[in-house]
Amino acid sequence: MSAPDLAARIAFALGLAIPLGACASAQTQADGSSTGAGGASGTSGAAGGTTTGSAVAVAVGPDEIPLPTMEPQCPQEPPDDGRVMRRGGCQIHMDCRPPLPAPPEKHFPAPFERCDPGFQSPMGGGFSPKGTLSTRERAPDICCYAIKQLHPAGRPQRDAGEAQIADLVERSDWLAPMQAPAADLADRDVLAADFRRRGLVEHSSVASFSTAVLALLSLGAPASLIEETQRAALDELEHTKLCFALAAALDGRSIGPGAFPPPRVVPPAAAWIESLVVDGCLGEAAGALEAEEAARACEDPAIRAVFERIARDEAAHAELAYRTLAWLLEAHPVSTRRAASAATAHLHDIPVSPIAARALSDVAGPLLGMMLA
Fold first, then answer.
1. Fewer CB within 10 A of the end CB, N or C, for the chain?
2. What is the dihedral of CA 192, 197, 198, 199, to 10 degrees?
3. In angstroms, rounded to a whole number, what is the distance separating the alpha carbons of residues 285 and 90?
């Protein structure tokens, strides 16, 4: 589901008509690349990454495979300032390992003939000639492969504006039954660490939706809205268990979330509404887009299935956030409009990844603009 498609789904659920062109900030170009907020262009990778040309050029023989002409690279992202967890995006991890015992039948030209041309990572990446040459300056017998790592997206629980995350502890009761990933996956330890980080964010989202239930009860919300919010918390619980189970299947370690940090303060209604706009209307939309892009780029069936489940649920949670805001605007118009408008006014000041920027320009921006007009 593209960002405009997600915006159209939510608008239909709310009975809103999005004007033609309102979701056209991401223009598809003739070469398949896209321009998002700010007009920057690049070929998107598994998590908004771009590619850059390789500076390594060598002659290729008849039985040799040309070196990759492009190396994975992530776009420049603003720093996470602690107030807002970065949503979507990626970073590059260089996985360096000993070369193959002998060159494969189809191999790279010298001096890379024993590097694996078939190396694949579920999140995207591949052999890095530049990374290999750089590392060989201190470790001569080595081959390096660039791996994309994803920053998890979601709707964390906040305390005084700061995202709250539990610690990791040894335990096996947070592991869901699931299909095991392929035994020959590369960089399993890195992937396991990624999914544990994602699992902690999903775990924080369980607390966030639980807080939402209490807030909605105190505001007199209808039973149907309470029920859907409770169901969303259970979705996040399942996401948490899937992420930790996948990590355990990758590195064999039974690890889960520890005790969740108790709240220091009970947020007032205005602060909760602002969080609904930032983390629900924007954050859940970004999470859905990021998970769908990751699923599309992933070749391993087990990992792809987890991302597909998360993408479906996060899209539904984004829709729920907008329907919750619509009810609040009807039931508590003055206070809700004031808090939501304040949050919306600062959305462009939040450090976001390219995927979240697309969610802002194509989903949250148009929809919130219509709802608060």
1. C
2. 90
3. 17
